[in-house]
Amino acid sequence: MAKYSGPVCKLCRREGEKLFLKGYRCFTPKCAVERRNYPPGMHGKGAQFRRKRESDYTRQLRAKQKARRVYGVVERQFHRYYEVSLRRRGLTGLNLLQILETRLDNVVFRLGFGSDRAEARQLVTHGHFSVNGRRTDIPSMLVTTGDVVSVRDGSRKRTFFKNLPDIAEDRNPPAWLSRDLKNLSGSMIRMPERSEIDGNLNEQSIVEFYSR
């Protein structure tokens, strides 16, 4: 599946807020939003002084784009997730966010085994993780309740994973995941609730965008 490979700081500047796409750098003065808090492009700096009334379409589009960028999903895949969420019982917007949260790369990130989702995705793609004892290299794989995600035995000897327990100790996983740092593994206890998902995402606007 294709992915965005350009400068991710531009994505944060376009949305006008930190999306935390570069891990620890987002918490330092080097963060692009801190240094250049205006949209990218030749007219970006002047755009912050021009007041525009935001249309409903613009609001819905920005909500959809923000969610896509936070989870690193391309449009075609994101739209497919929306169609799947429509067929599930319950609220469509919540279903969509739950699908995004239970992607394998996001679960690895939530467990603290990656500093950001991009790093977690790369680790999964390189085959360093297994699900229920079976090696997988598909970041978009959806983890279900009861699944166990763990670092493969062949990868534990690498320096990155030897130091991982000390690094990951400061990153607390959400309540819907359990983690075993000693064995570098974690499991999904239940589906995440809305309060446990990024509150800055507006799932209702995303549903309105695709319902036009």
Q: What would CATH call the architecture of the largest domain?
A: Roll
CATH superfamily of the largest domain: RNA-binding S4 domain
Mean pLDDT over all positions: 85
Roughly how much helix do the residues carry, as a percent range? 40-55%
What does this structure look like?
With 212 residues, the chain is of the alpha+beta class. The chain has ten helices and five strands, in the order ααααααααβββαββα. The protein has helices at 9-15, 32-35, 44-47, 56-71, 75-87, 92-101, 104-110, 117-125, 159-168, 203-210, and strands at 129-131, 134-136, 148-151, 177-180, 185-188. The chain has a five-stranded antiparallel beta sheet, with helices on one face. The longest helix is centred in the first third of the chain and has 16 residues, at 56-71. The model has no long low-confidence stretch (mean pLDDT 85).
Which helices and strands, and how do they pair?
Elements: H1 9-15, H2 32-35, H3 44-47, H4 56-71, H5 75-87, H6 92-101, H7 104-110, H8 117-125, E1 129-131, E2 134-136, E3 148-151, H9 159-168, E4 177-180, E5 185-188, H10 203-210
Antiparallel strand pairs: 1-2, 1-3, 3-5, 4-5
Helix pairs in contact: 4-10, 5-6, 6-10, 7-8
